Amino acid sequence: MEFIVYVFTAGSDHTAHEGNPRRFKISDSPELCGWTKVHEFKAFRQQIPGTIPIFVSETGGGPTYPGCNPHRFRVALDSGVPTGWTRDSLIFYAYQAPAAGTVPHYVFERGGGDPAAGNPARCEITLNPCPSYCWGTKLIFHAVPADDPNKMPVHVYTAGDDSRASQGDPFRNNISLDGHGPSQAGWFKVMEFKAFRSPVAGSVQYFVSETGGGPVHPGCNPHRFRVHTDSGVQTGWTRDNFTFHAYPTPTPGTIPFYVMERGGGDPAAGDPARCTIAIDPNPLPGWYVKSTFYAYPSFNPALQNIYVMLSGDDPNAHLGDPKRFKFALEGTNEPDSGWRRVTAFKAFTSPVPGTTQYFISEAGGGRVQPGCDPHRFRCGTESGVLTGWKKDNFSFWAYANPTAGTAVFYVMERGGGDPTQGDPARCEITQHPVPTPGWHIRFKFYAYPSHEIY
């Protein structure tokens, strides 16, 4: 009679115009490719005293692109079919009022009208009583969490680039709880982890403080965050947003997270004090590792998102800005400024039977201008360093043949020869099998599709 209901998420409200708004899937299946699990709770398949029926309805689906009707879900006290939802995919029973062992679960909703216009009707189930910007409370029910209610997700976003520090836009992180992420465009989610709300044996308290804000321009005090074992207010930060508790040493089920710092002094001078959290222990130039804590990853460390980002356009090749793609691994906090995320997929970070290793290499960089060697990336089955690329950033493992749950991804190529002549060697990873004019398919692989384009 009792079973587990799982809550998954995909998309972002910042990418709603691309057909990929922030939305949630509610299911009795524990694993769904392309969706990230954020919560689970216990419910009943049949009514017992004190419970009420809750209908989960769904609609939409198919590829994510501008003008599409994305796959999305509704949570309500009645069937969604009479109001235009395709079907009721799940009905569960939960307590209407507090009961032993239960906690309140909040159902928030957003959107309506034409789903192709970028803001379709959709719902969320969360333990956080504060809705995100533009979301509203629809109903509250009470259920027993199936995961540890003392664990909470902490989200890490990134913005800026240290090369633009003089313009008031240095590389920095926003570290937030559910429903309190960035309300402005320009931030991209790179990672999340689970930490404790209150102390547990062996844990340490960490303060997340913030300061700055407002428009980005030279001489401004940009919005930035700090993670430390003491209050930031005592050292000049505007306020402490929240605290979390994590382990200072390895503990079963946890992985290391590195707190890195840079800057100080007058924030308007272009190098303000700021922090970043990463799973990569190698700091970016100018940064250093301040501390390390151990928390629970909200992602599978062996199966991570790889983001595909676009910059430039082939008609601008003679200006040093040809169409090219960047590939970045989730959690590396690699600055994304100047690149627009277009797709993502999940692949393995270590070999599993039946997979092939693929290397991501890079070359070029610096200012975009005629005669330059633009920043560009390559995907291949051998090290790019052996064929003249500057360095190998990382590698991943994916299937060479169709495997249950995977989708096909095509690696396209274009260019070669002198990179300063407007048509340098570069690669694209896409699910579309028809190349853009001037590009050709080099090979294909099979990986798990992901909707996590923030």
Note the topology.
Blueprint: E1 2-10, E2 23-27, E3 36-44, E4 51-59, E5 72-76, E6 87-95, E7 103-110, E8 122-126, E9 136-145, E10 151-159, E11 172-177, E12 188-196, E13 204-211, E14 224-228, E15 239-246, E16 255-262, E17 274-278, E18 288-297, E19 303-311, E20 324-329, E21 340-348, E22 355-363, E23 376-380, E24 391-399, E25 407-414, E26 426-430, E27 440-450
| Poorly predicted residue ranges | none
Order of helices and strands: EEEEEEEEEEEEEEEEEEEEEEEEEEE
Largest sheet: 6 strands, antiparallel
Radius of gyration, in Å, reads 23 Å
Q: What coarse outline follows from CA principal-axis ratios?
A: globular
- What is the arithmetic mean of pLDDT? 84
Number of strands: 27
What structural class do you assign from the helix and strand content?
mainly beta
Terminal Cα separation, in Å? 38 Å
The number of helical elements comes to 0
Integer tally of domains: 3
Strands of the widest sheet, in order across it, are 2-1-3-9-7-8
What percentage of amino acids are in beta strands?
A: over 45%
**Helix residue percentage:** under 10%
Description:
The protein is mainly beta and 454 residues long. The chain folds into three domains: 2-145, no CATH class; 151-297, no CATH class; 303-450, no CATH class. Helix content is 0%, strand content 46%. It has strands at 2-10, 23-27, 36-44, 51-59, 72-76, 87-95, 103-110, 122-126, 136-145, 151-159, 172-177, 188-196, 204-211, 224-228, 239-246, 255-262, 274-278, 288-297, 303-311, 324-329, 340-348, 355-363, 376-380, 391-399, 407-414, 426-430, 440-450. The strands form six sheets. It has a six-stranded antiparallel beta sheet with strand order 2-1-3-9-7-8, with no helix packed on it.
